[in-house]
Design brief:
Number of domains: 1
Number of strands: 10
Distance between the termini: 49 Å
Strand content: 35-45%
Largest sheet: 8 strands, mixed, barrel
Structural class: alpha+beta
Helix content: 10-25%
Shape: globular
CATH class: Mainly Beta
CATH topology: Sortase, Chain: A
Order of helices and strands: HEEEEHEEEEEE
Radius of gyration: 16 Å
CATH superfamily: Sortase
CATH architecture: Beta Barrel
């Protein structure tokens, strides 16, 4: 059973990273610019043409339920996590179709994340737009569970932190919020 789980996780991670590698190796017809552009529509996929350097601020994660506004930085190394929420570089940007993954420390910025659950809103305010998500699922998974980073068929925001919240030391599990995009508000003059 464990081997089957590892196989599925490894296969999905390979597909995710293979897809990223292919998109880098094959030149796109679209130009990447300093100014982001957001394309939306019923039949079009949401695409954001924006790049960030590791450590660069992407925007803010607003959690109305706990009255929190937390800065989001590109990358999930300790440097980024000390400053705020980290955006997993192997995932899409918030607002794009697929799975955007955010992580943070339970004993600093996500101290009250356990109060957030199904039906609550998560809002990402970025330079390129504002994206409102609704939490559809709360999961508690093992610390080494990689299913939180797998691709998704629609715009999804996955937010994770260590669990249990009151655990002393390196926590054995992760508290995961899985939210779907319900509203997109792109910035004007893009």
């Amino acid at each position: 059973m464990i081997m089957a789980g590892l196989y599925v996780a490894a296969t999905n991670a390979f597909k995710l990273f293979q897809g990223r590698a292919l998109s880098v190796e094959q030149p796109s017809e679209k130009k990447h610019s300093e100014k982001p552009s957001v394309q939306t529509g019923k039949k079009q996929k949401a695409e954001i043409v924006q790049t960030f350097e590791t450590g660069e601020k992407i925007g803010d994660l607003v959690i109305p339920k706990i009255k929190a506004r937390l800065p989001i930085y590109h990358g999930t190394d300790e440097d980024e996590l000390q400053k705020g929420v980290g955006h997993f570089a192997g995932s899409v940007l918030p607002g794009e179709d697929d799975n955007s993954v955010l992580s943070g420390h339970r004993d600093t910025i996500f101290r009250r994340l356990g109060e957030v659950g199904k039906g609550d809103r998560l809002i990402v305010e970025a330079e390129y737009g504002t994206f409102t998500y609704k939490v559809k699922k709360v999961r508690i998974v093992d610390a080494d569970d990689r299913t939180v980073i797998v691709p998704k068929p629609r715009a999804t925001l996955t937010v994770s932190t260590c669990y249990p919240f009151d655990f002393i030391g390196s926590a054995p599990e992760r508290y995961v919020l899985v939210a779907e995009l319900i509203k997109t508000q792109k910035k004007r003059n893009l």
